[in-house]
Write a structure and sequence with these properties.
five-stranded mixed beta sheet, 43% helix, binds 2'-deoxyguanosine-5'-triphosphate, binds calcium ion
């Protein structure tokens, strides 16, 4: 199956958080500053909104220089409040974690995610999921973000950068070399100014140049491991997995049906391997679930979902088979169309070990 790896990066993060808190700032250049305290203005710009960037202000610039560039523009100079941004970041990560298969936060305002399974390997479906992530972050925190979607972490990261701000770049496997090829090598994740300069010296300027480089040349210059990485990065074939940084909150599987159908028994029988996959995930992570959802993607490509939530956590999947048939029958009668794709999701996950320790705890007199 095609891998669908995403990278989300929040736009001008600290400054945007300040704008959300104080919307009047949107009309002005905003610089978020780290004051060193030596003199009134000593310190650096942590980040700036895009209005301030138009005047050449950027992260890491001395506050004095930024102020000079912004003379006469009525700039807002805001003191950095790291705890505030951490709190917003934590809420966003929790939120996005619920919309993807696996989330790997890699910084205060960015994370990789894997949606291969939720999207059933399909890039149109992947685009919809990415749009729903952007929408959810905007609706919950009023922040815009940029997302890249592609076959590898390197491609995804590059994509989020290409679309900034408030963008979505979907780079399908077929388009990968066309999109990456013309870019300078320095755009690749893990290729810093030093590596870039060494590559340029041997005539490798673009990603396309790097993709056709002689592997033994790269190995000689950069060592076996990094040499191989560079080649994989340039061809979009790096297979580094997205490693869960947050507990999963759901497991899901969506399949494309062999034929469009309304028959719930047929749908569930084709979903059997998917339910097996969910069973394996639950067992491997020792988790129970509370909610089963049936997801139907109809012939007009609209998505309908129906869920059942149990009073107590459920271990094992026999109940999924039973409930799925009921839920798909309900979906079919209300939808009026055939299903083209169908999926199962379990959510409300909890560690089964926590439950046993909880019941022991409850049984202990206090
Ligand atoms: P973007 O992603 O280009 O729209 O803008 P930012 O501001 O989100 O940039 P990013 O993603 O590189 O960094 C995320 C946050 O990290 C940023 O809002 C502030 C902080 N940050 C980035 N670079 C620096 C720096 O050089 N110094 C300090 N103190 N903080 C920084
Ligand atoms: Ca950012
Ligand atoms: Ca970032």
């Amino acid at each position: 199956m095609n891998r669908l790896i995403g990278h989300i990066d929040l736009d001008y993060f600290y400054a945007q958080v300040e704008e959300v808190e104080n919307p009047a700032l949107r009309e002005r250049p905003v610089i978020v500053c780290v004051f060193s305290g030596r003199t009134e203005d000593s310190g650096v710009v942590s980040t700036a909104n895009y209005r301030a960037r138009d005047f050449g202000v950027h992260s890491g610039m001395p506050i004095v220089s930024a102020k000079k560039r912004l003379e006469g523009t009525n700039p807002a100079i805001v003191r950095m409040d790291h705890e505030k941004y951490e709190a917003v970041s934590a809420r966003i990560m929790e939120n996005v974690n619920q919309l993807v298969d696996v989330l790997e936060p890699t910084g205060i305002d960015e994370a990789f995610f894997d949606i291969t399974s939720s999207a059933d390997g399909d890039y149109d479906r992947g685009r919809e999921i990415a749009e729903s992530i952007k929408k959810s972050v905007f609706e919950s925190e009023h922040l815009t973000s940029s997302i890249g979607l592609g076959r590898s972490k390197v491609v995804a990261k590059l994509g989020s950068d290409l679309s900034k701000p408030n963008g979505l770049t979907v780079i399908t496997p077929e388009k990968t070399s066309d999109v990456l090829g013309p870019l300078p090598v320095g755009k690749l994740y893990g290729v810093g100014p030093k590596t870039s300069a060494s590559l340029n010296e041997i005539g490798i300027k673009t990603v396309a140049d790097l993709a056709r480089a002689d592997p033994s040349d790269l190995e000689r210059l950069f060592g076996r491991k990094f040499g191989a990485y560079l080649l994989a990065a340039a061809t979009g074939t790096d297979d580094a997995p997205v490693v869960a940084g947050l507990e999963p909150t759901q497991f899901s599987r969506i399949v494309t049906l062999k034929e469009d159908t309304k028959d719930p028994h047929e749908v569930v029988s084709q979903l059997a391997p998917g339910i097996g996959y969910i069973e394996a995930k639950l067992a491997a992570s020792k988790m129970s679930f509370r909610t089963v959802s049936a997801i139907g993607i109809l012939t007009d490509l609209s998505t309908k979902t129906r869920s059942k939530t149990f009073e107590t956590p459920v271990v094992g999947v026999s109940v999924i088979h039973e409930e799925a048939t009921v839920l798909f029958a309900e979906l079919a009668s209300s939808a009026g169309r055939d299903f083209r794709r169908a999926g199962i999701r379990v959510s409300g996950l909890a560690h089964t070990e926590d439950q046993s320790s909880l019941s022991e705890f409850v049984g202990t007199p206090r």
